[in-house]
Automatic annotation (TrEMBL):
InterPro entries: Integrase_cat-core (IPR001584), RNaseH-like_sf (IPR012337), Transposase-Integrase (IPR051917). This is Transposase, IS30 family. SUPFAM superfamilies: Ribonuclease H-like. One of its GO terms (biological process) is transposition. It comes from Sulfitobacter pontiacus. One of its GO terms (molecular function) is transposase activity. One of its GO terms (cellular component) is cytosol. Residues 1-67 form the Integrase catalytic domain.
Amino acid sequence: MFCDPQAPWQKGSVENLNKRARRYLPRDAPVAALTNRDMKSICDRLNGTPRKCLGWKTPTEAFREELMKLR
C-alpha cells in the first residue's frame, strides 16, 4: 500500500513513531551530525518503551517473543 504525499493520516503508525522520535531529536537538529552512539541511544529508548498496542511490552520484548516462536 502506498500513501499519498502530504497525507499523514494515511500512515498513522509512521507518524506515531516520528512523534516519539521527536522527543529525543528536535526537528531542527542536524541528523547528519549525530554519531552512531547517539542513534543507538535513541533506538534503545524507542525500543525499550512499553506500548499499549503490544500489551504493554516493549518492542524488544515482543520481537524476542516472536523470534522464540520460530525456534
